[in-house]
Amino acid sequence: MELDGDKFENEINTNSGFNSKSIYDIESIDLKVFWDAFKAYISEIELDKGYLNNFNGRWTRTCDEDYWEIDRNKVARSMIQEMGKGEYPLKKPPENKIIKKLVEFFFKHVSMPENHDSSKARYNYTIRINELFDNFNLPLKLLKGRVTFKKSIILNNLLIHEDLTYLKNDSVLSELLKEAVTFFTDSQKINIDTALEKIANSLERVKTIFEGSDKKKSTEKTIELLSKDVEIRGFLDNHLKNLNLICNNYLIRHKEVN
To answer: Which of 21, 125, 156, 191 can pair with 139 through a Cys bridge, CB separation 3.0 to 4.6 Å?
Structure first.
């Protein structure tokens, strides 16, 4: 069956409250959860590592300790020139698009204190920023100085999107999907089968949300909530049936049983 893509997208957006276009927008990711850790890291590379020596950096010795001193006003001026606004040291979390720009801004300006080697400093900076993204379960990575999505855009974003309130109300479904993402994004690629099994179990779980063990009625109710359009309901029904066939034909064991 051929389906009007725009009609389908508009219907889903209207009835679910979820804007499918937003999952492709990095600015829709809540980077504020990462802000304090990022701010602490920038303080570390300024005072301890000396990576910001391009801003008139020099080692300063006191009675208690040695630390790296820079011209903080120069940092703020550079921010304003490159991003349109700037404040340094970093304080309150700005909007998401500014946090993204700040991550990219500092990548451009780090270098090793002893020889101004920017390549090594940028490598170390990239490694640590990506570790922080992972620590806060953000589906992002810093790649060649640019913040971008990693792995599956849709899979990662749907699981952290606040509009999917049913995840908060069903701890079993939430855990299944989180495990699926963990196994799916495993760099060693040894748990793909397990990831598929978790996704299959999630699908079976969705079928029982409304009517308990009666999967047919529960699926019908789920489809009714997703769309009022007969054509779109037919498309969703066929889509779920196809997913079920894939799960059964590839010997994926279901957790939800009759």
So the answer is: 156
